[in-house]
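Exercise 7. Given the encoded structure of a 331-residue chain, write a plausible sequence.
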């Protein structure tokens, strides 16, 4: 989501070759396709008003794309960037930003950074594998498993891989902070994550965990262990100032014999403990697939986007929660 200087909010969605945009003034405005790439897009970020598009499978000399005007142009004509750190042919797959610095993630273990992605002035690399000079992580980290994603909590970058999570601080030092699953690498480890205040919320399989970077405390929320239903797969995690949101495929054996899709809303009771309610449920899935899920501000409340693939078509389910939302909470 992107808020302009005139307080106009736009929401963006990328999938496959396409980037879509909608004016977020209400829940009914259509998505408009603003760009179609020649190869798959793996990430899209807005940095200082400039759109940055990752296209790592591009076979030309273009390393990534930038779009100067992300809100006014009806059809984008992005500029291809050919920058020296990526001249070997390995191109950024993801981007993330902290305090005016944009980070580009290359291969499985290298990070470059800049204050202006339109200029060939990148610094780095930072070595996530912990083999670089100055890293504080101790033993050598992983350079094999691919990135699952990147999250920002306070002034830390958290790099999520299939076996562990690494933090990068403001001094570019790397520390392996979540190592408990190093011997159990999986595509379902750290697949989804969200930032709730100063906490990192993430999944390992069907479990949802909360990590506090300040204390190092790592707590299982216990969502999958509630009585009456079973969480089979987490499909998305998000958070705002009031709630934690988890989209999941569940089985309620006492009611039906088929899986359903549930949107859980969690309210914090005490550190690591949440009261949960089901805010939305799809009881007949058919061949549709769901996820991921995102939560953006909507006035003083929140807007939830649930992505659904319906017989080959990608669409979004939009749910607006007002700021005064207060329903009965289950344990």
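Solution.
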């Amino acid at each position: 989501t992107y808020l302009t200087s005139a307080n106009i909010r736009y929401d963006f969605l990328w999938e496959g070759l396409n980037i879509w945009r909608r004016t977020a003034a209400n829940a009914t405005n259509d998505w408009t396709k603003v760009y179609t790439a020649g190869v798959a897009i793996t990430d899209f970020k807005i940095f200082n008003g400039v759109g940055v598009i990752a296209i790592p499978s591009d076979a030309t000399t273009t390393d990534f794309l930038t779009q100067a005007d992300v809100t006014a142009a009806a059809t984008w004509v992005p500029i291809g960037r050919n920058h020296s750190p990526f001249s070997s042919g390995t191109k950024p797959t993801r981007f993330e930003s902290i305090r005016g610095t944009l980070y580009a993630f290359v291969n499985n273990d290298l990070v470059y950074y800049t204050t202006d992605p339109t200029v060939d002035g990148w610094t780095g690399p930072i070595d996530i594998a912990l083999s670089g000079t100055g890293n504080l992580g101790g033993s050598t980290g992983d350079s094999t498993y691919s990135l699952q994603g990147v999250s920002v909590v306070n002034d830390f970058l958290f790099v999520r891989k299939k076996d562990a999570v690494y933090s990068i601080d403001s001094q570019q030092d790397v520390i392996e902070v979540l190592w408990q699953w190093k011997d159990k690498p999986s595509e379902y480890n750290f697949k989804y994550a969200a930032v709730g205040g100063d906490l990192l919320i993430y999944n390992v399989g069907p479990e949802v965990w909360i990590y506090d970077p300040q204390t190092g405390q790592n707590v299982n929320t216990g969502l999958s262990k509630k009585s009456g239903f079973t969480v089979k797969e987490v499909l998305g995690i998000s958070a705002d100032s009031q709630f934690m949101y988890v989209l999941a495929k569940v089985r309620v054996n006492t009611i039906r014999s088929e899986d359903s899709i549930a949107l859980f809303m969690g309210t914090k009771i005490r550190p690591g403990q949440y009261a949960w309610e089901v805010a939305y449920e799809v009881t007949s899935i058919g061949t549709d697939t769901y996820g991921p899920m995102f939560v953006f501000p909507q006035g003083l409340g929140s807007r939830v986007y649930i992505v659904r693939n319906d017989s080959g078509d990608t669409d979004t389910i939009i749910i607006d929660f007002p700021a005064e939302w207060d329903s009965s909470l289950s344990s």
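Remark. The longest strand covers residues 260-270. Students should compare their own answers with the one above.
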